[in-house]
Amino acid sequence: MEPSGVTVLGLPHPPPTATPAPPPPPPHDPFSGPLQSVAPWNFKVLAALMFTVSALSLAENFLVMLVTFRFKQLRQPLNYIIVNLSLADFMLSLTGGLISFVTNYRGYFFLGIWACVLEGFAVTYFGIVALWSLAVLAFERFFVICRPLGNIRLRVKHAALGLVFVWTFSFIWTIPPVLGWSSYTVSKIGTTCEPNWYSNSFSDHTFIITFFITCFILPLGVIIVCYTKLVRKLRKVSNTHGRLGNTRKPERQVTRMVVVMIVAYMVAWTPYAIFSIVVTSWPTIDLDPRLASVPAFFAKTSACYNPVIYVFMNKQFKKCLIQLFSCNDGIVEGNLNQTTERPGMTAESNTGEMSAIAARIPISGGILPTADDQSSQCSTFAQLPVAENKICPM
């Protein structure tokens, strides 16, 4: 027997056969089972959180729509976008929140690929409608207070055009993934669906960048510019009528409220926007699935605190809410309709608080008031209910 490596008749032995490498494991199918790398209790925690957020959002936003429908004095043009915001948040929680609760409870997206596409589209669509509703609300407040077009006031047709713009513009930028420009796919954790941030395709990247600009940067810019101009207008009026010490209190309250609105917007949507850009720029980045689910969760929580910021902190709405659940309707009705003791309450009851404020601010470029008029306006401005209701629009 010849030793290994010794030639026989001048010919070398063939090398020993290498053992074949085992085949790579098949990729995880998010529609067939949960991720093995995530402990089951993590999904249960997410399910509990989504149930809590969805229940609060559905209750709050339904109450906003119910009270607005119940009381005619709340159905003013400036309040249309408020109701639209509540409707969008309600639908966002009804589609995305409840589905996310069920899928997290099961641990994976067991509803199938078509349900994933529909859920991804619905959540994105209603979320963008809510975002642009906030931007249109800021513009309408600027329009009412600053009066950029002089005597032209916000009317029903203007408010209706704002609603048409919000729903149409949002649809334009959320339907392309359904039609083939990018796509809706399962998230890293496998229990929700979202735009495909993880693709290496140039076409997908162009959609994500365009989507980021039109549905985050642009509405944020509208909100910042409009509220900045609104605060400057109120500050200018406060300086003009500054002989009374309490005229600066409304301005401070308005400024704080604007800061709260902008911070709330940023807290809800900035993590999701940053996450989408980071993942689009580095699609191979290795992120823990639990960490990747945090931005989407923050975005869905906005449906809970939007009603608190934009509606429930409003005095007129609170009075209507008390009347809705009160056994003695006459007392609250009397408070809503009083017209003799406080001059500002008539306008507030009939046209809304923002319109009452706007009625006391002189139009830019108009005739300068006389000394008597200035004194009258000053005393009236000091009686404005801004400090109590923080200029919420109803």
From TrEMBL:
Q: Name one GO molecular function term.
A: G protein-coupled receptor activity
In its keyword annotation, does this UniProt entry include Manganese? no
Q: How does it sit in the membrane?
A: Multi-pass membrane protein
Question: What range(s) does the G-protein coupled receptors family 1 profile domain occupy?
Answer: 60-310
The residue ranges flagged as biased composition, category Pro residues, are 12-29
Q: What residue ranges are annotated as transmembrane?
A: 45-69, 81-102, 108-139, 160-179, 207-227, 258-282, 294-313
Region Disordered, residue ranges: 1-29
* Subcellular localization: Membrane
Q: Which UniProt keywords apply?
A: Chromophore, Disulfide bond, G-protein coupled receptor, Membrane, Photoreceptor protein, Receptor, Retinal protein, Sensory transduction, Transducer, Transmembrane, Transmembrane helix
Entry GO CC: membrane
Q: Which GO terms describe its biological process?
A: phototransduction; visual perception
Determine if Membrane is one of this entry's keywords.
yes
UniProt record similarity statement: Belongs to the G-protein coupled receptor 1 family. Opsin subfamily.
The protein here is known as G-protein coupled receptors family 1 profile domain-containing protein
- Species: Denticeps clupeoides (denticle herring)
